[in-house]
Fold this protein.
Amino acid sequence: MSNWLEKFFIQNGLVVAFLSVAVIMVVSSFISRRITKKKIPDSAVAIVIGLLLAYIGGRIGKGSKGIADVSIFSGFGLMGGAMLRDFAVVSTAMGASFDEIRKSGLIGLLSLFIGVVGTFVVGAVLAVTFGYTDAKSITTIGAGACTFIVGPITGAAIGAESHIIAISIAAGVVKSILVTIATPAMARSIGLNNPQAAMAYGGLMGTTSGVTAGLAATDPRLVPYGAMTATFYTGLGCLLCPSVLYYLVTLVMQ
Amino acid sequence: MTIYGLGILSACFLAGQLFGEILGRLIGIDANIGGVGFAMILLIVANDKLIRKDLLPPATQQGILFWSAMYIPVIVAMSATQNVVGAFSGGLMAVVAGIIPTAAMFFLIPVLSRIRQSKDKKP
């Protein structure tokens, strides 16, 4: 592409991202209505297209930011970055009912602890099954099974090797993608159709990106409830994994 | 005025996030603890109070509702910037550690929802 044109697109990066996402939404809506006969919601289709673009972008750009590594699409980095994502997530609280949240506050809290500890334990056991024997690696992989933020923070805190930290980040990203895709498909069979279930779900899954994307594709009205608990998950994980849970792993592995 | 709504949203966002950051520093970990959650609680409370005092006309609400309508497009942009290639380059260990614990948690959702329902039934 000619140099000035590329520069033009980069200078207007955020607006290029707006237009691109609008086109993705139009295409998704068409696919949802005509091809899947509305069985798969258009937002779910759009998110899957997004993941495909992320894969293509990662292959072309050889970076870690998906399509944003392709220079003319760098605006995706800002539009889909943490600041605007969190801003949009907070705005959804306008539609949330305070009574609903208070009613299921205990379930939310319980699901958070079960979610972090349960995920960590299953992840740690898998690490042992794969032949890891040192407590640092096992703890870091277990933490990575929680989210791709808990993994590297835990790994750095307890001094794990860098390739183990890379595995923990990858595990967290796999989880985020899985939750995004599996949520709309599983929603009916796990009874995910009310605010209480959404709060329990947010606490058990934790991955904010996966939970919010998954709920958006299932029923946008449930987003604030799931996001509310999910946002505390990473904090709790960063708190428990490098401390209590790491200590327990060292005891077990002795 | 639409910008008033945007101002309310921004104030709740920054206050919540700042609280999350401070909480992280106090506990001694380099992470934001529940900033988004605190911001959401602030917005719910502010929304409730302002509507009761009739201080939230539709034009002001538009400043907040625009962003909740932009929520799905932002999530689409976010999924397009995930490190999908990296997720698969972590090898089998990463894929297994990402899938199996998550699948296990999925089955607990109906169990937790049921605890609440049985509790509700009590007089």
Summary: DSSP finds 13 helices and no strands in chain A. Chain A touches chain B through 110 residues (CB under 8 Å). Residues 95-253 of chain A form one domain.
